[in-house]
Every structure is written in structure tokens, then in C-alpha cells.
Amino acid sequence: MTLSELSACYEAAAVPLRARLSQLRYALAAAEDPEEIWHLKRRIAELTPMLTQMNELAELTAHYYDRGYYRSEKYTL
After folding, report:
1. pTM of the complete model beyond 0.85
2. Among 8, 31, 32, 52, which is least packed, fewest CB within 10 Å?
3. How many domains does the chain have?
4. Which domain holds residue 65?
């Protein structure tokens, strides 16, 4: 598997995560029960970093070998 193929996999994996976060935010806007609001906020807080990381890795693997591409210090050794 090449890095560009891996990038496509990260992008594809981000789609359902993005959709789930959208559903959770919609449910949060409609929720009135404080306990339900707390659970929804917690779930959103858990999924948001996953989506961020998938987006960062998709970008990194898509452009890893491009000249002049700035690689994040977060993912380099």
C-alpha cells in the first residue's frame, strides 16, 4: 500500500466520523436533560480528536513526498 492509498483510506474513514459528530451535535442542540447533555458533550469530546488526527494524517500521507511540503513535527521522528 502506498502513502497516497493510505491517505484515501484515512479520508474514507473520516466520513462516518464526521457524520456521527454532526448527529451528536444535532442531538445536543435538541437535548434538555442535563445528564444526556453531559454524555453527548463527552462523546463529542472523544470523537473530535480522532477526526482531527485522521484529517492530519490524510494530509500528511497525501503530500509526504511533495517537495517543499511542510511536515508537522507531531508526526516526525
Report:
1. no
2. 32
3. 1
4. 3-75
